[in-house]
Design goal:
CATH superfamily: Amino acid/polyamine transporter I
Structural class: mainly alpha
Strand content: under 5%
Number of domains: 1
Strand order of the largest sheet: 1-2
Largest sheet: 2 strands, antiparallel
Mean pLDDT: 95
Helix content: 55-70%
Oligomer: single chain
CATH topology: Amino acid/polyamine transporter I
Order of helices and strands: HHHHHHHHHHHHHHHHHHEEHHHHH
CATH architecture: Up-down Bundle
Radius of gyration: 22 Å
Number of helices: 23
Number of strands: 2
Distance between the termini: 40 Å
Length: 517
């Protein structure tokens, strides 16, 4: 099928679903894959979460990767079938809306949109330590990555550049993502090869050891699992992987700009997840084997005081190579943030096009010059910037709120970021549940990719994985517990979900969407 006839077919399919083609259908198969792959971003995930994984679970945590990869592959198959049947911008919102009801889809879209916007803020602020390190080295500045003003200004600069690039066209977004994919390959496989050439300090068997992570006396992060690895350390360490393996669904968010979307979107979702799994395993294995073999250095390498920068510094003596790797990390964060902002804008555009937000006519406006949802992109920059301001809100002492305690010295931004992953998992869970409800009502997929007779079984497995992992993400176990201390802040994540639910109720009540129903 030629590109022209394929485009006509996609426009016809979009029209049959009630929408006209307003965005430019310019993204190739590799562009679609790259948007999904750079959002998933193995480099961003590993550079952000390596210490959480190895510090809480020891080298053996690498094998826990199989759980979220396999679980999410079942999810990806469900999404791929939905994406092929409903090749519409705003993937999860549209899938849930068409599977169950408009109101159900609205709530999926709400939690997913907020989670995306939170993630943009998390990624763009997360690159600040690496960016200041490079700037201080090259220009002899003294930028402090923990300074609130520094965080705000650098995040503002990143958001401005990302927004300009995204506004100027989907093709530009695709090129940034495509280059980001090559950077991801270098930053994972390339760095692994460099570390291997420098010489590993352990044999392959080291990857099966725990190095005493299950015991408080020998745990690098100082947390206590009572000597229980599988039902203690592993439940926390697996989060370092669970936080990485999503984002593949963003290929569906840009479906209306993808050539031959009913065929390419499902492929991009599955391929991005598998590529992310392979590259993540290679980089984590290389970093783990490169850890110095003396106990003091091991503890530093697997704690927040040292981590990956310490491993690279001890393994690679060349300042030039270290700067190249630092540049790769910075661009990986940049392209990841850019892809997420692009996906969030398409989600907001799709949402607003249905009258699902206040000021929906403005947010759904498409630039006649660039054929991009320019106002949705501006919202996708301003909201994360507003979230970034929350870094300034940090109590000096523990704060008692009803039955929960908000911990001292934890910024409101950190609390909001703790919702980022749980919000994504909640939206995934509701979407997969919606697909299951549709199947029980007799829905049959009619896209290029279908699950056939195995659809029900795959759907149930995907839902079971998401339910179990969501519980592991949010269940409150006390601030003194490893879970509460390292990522979900006891009741805080659940309370953030509840607060955002209440805010969502207000937005829903005043949106044109409700008034039309």
């Amino acid at each position: 099928m030629s590109d022209h006839s394929s485009d006509k077919h996609e426009e016809s399919r979009l029209g049959s679903l009630g929408y006209k083609q307003e965005l430019s259908r310019v993204l190739s198969k590799f562009d679609s894959f790259s948007v999904a792959f750079t959002y998933l971003s193995p480099m961003v995930g590993i550079y952000s979460l390596f210490v959480l994984g190895i510090g809480s679970g020891g080298p053996r945590y690498i094998w826990l990767m199989l759980i979220p990869v396999i679980g999410m592959y079942f999810v990806a198959m469900v999404f791929a079938e939905l994406g092929s049947h409903y090749p519409i911008s705003g993937a999860l919102y549209q899938y849930a809306k068409n599977s169950v009801s408009a109101k159900y889809g609205w709530w999926v879209g709400w939690f997913y949109s907020v989670a995306l916007l939170v993630t943009v803020a998390a990624v763009d602020t997360g690159v600040v330590p690496y960016l200041t390190t490079l700037l201080n080295s090259w220009f002899k500045t003294n930028l402090d990555p923990t300074n609130h003003t520094t965080i705000l200004y650098l995040t503002l600069a990143l958001l401005a550049i990302q927004t300009i690039l995204n506004v100027t066209g989907a093709k530009v977004m695709g090129r940034v993502a495509s280059f980001g994919s090559y950077v991801e390959i270098f930053g994972t496989i390339g760095i692994a090869l460099i570390l291997a050439a420098a010489g590993f300090n352990h044999g392959f068997g080291f990857l099966f050891s725990t190095q005493g992570a299950e015991n408080a006396a020998t745990n690098s992060l100082g947390v206590d699992f009572g000597g229980n690895w599988w039902m203690g350390a592993a439940l926390i360490a697996v989060m370092a992987h669970a936080y990485i393996f999503y984002g593949f669904e963003s290929a569906g968010d840009v479906a209306e700009e993808t050539k031959d979307a009913t065929r390419q979107v499902p492929r991009a979702m599955r391929q991005a997840l598998l590529a992310g799994a392979i590259t993540s395993f290679i980089l984590i294995a290389a970093l783990t084997l490169a850890i110095p073999n003396d106990p003091k250095s091991y503890k530093l390498a697997t704690s927040f005081e040292g981590g990956i920068p310490f491993i690279l510094q001890t393994a690679i003596s060349s300042n030039f190579l270290r700067d190249i790797m630092l540049l790769a990390v910075i661009f990986a964060f940049f392209s990841c943030g850019s892809s997420i902002q692009g996906a969030s804008a398409r989600m907001l555009f799709s949402y607003a096009r249905d009258g699902a937000t206040p000021a929906s006519s403005m947010i759904s406006k498409v630039s006649p010059r660039f054929h991009t949802p320019v106002n949705a992109l501006l919202v996708g920059a301003l909201v994360p910037l507003a979230f970034t301001l929350l870094v300034n809100v940090s109590p000096a002492n523990d704060v008692k709120i009803l039955f929960m305690t908000y911990p001292a010295h934890v910024s409101a931004l950190t609390s909001l970021v703790s919702f980022g992953v749980s919000g994504i998992y909640l939206a995934f869970l509701l979407t997969v549940l919606g697909a299951l409800i549709a199947r029980t009502r007799g829905w049959k997929a009619e896209g290029q990719y279908t699950l056939g007779g195995k659809g029900m079984m795959i759907n149930i497995i995907a839902l079971a994985y998401l339910v179990l992992m969501f519980i592991n993400l949010v269940i409150p176990t006390g601030l003194g517990s490893p879970r509460g201390g390292l990522f979900n802040l006891d009741w805080v994540t659940l309370m953030v979900i509840a607060v955002l639910g209440l805010v969502g109720l207000v937005v829903y009540m005043i949106s044109p969407f409700r008034q039309k129903k």
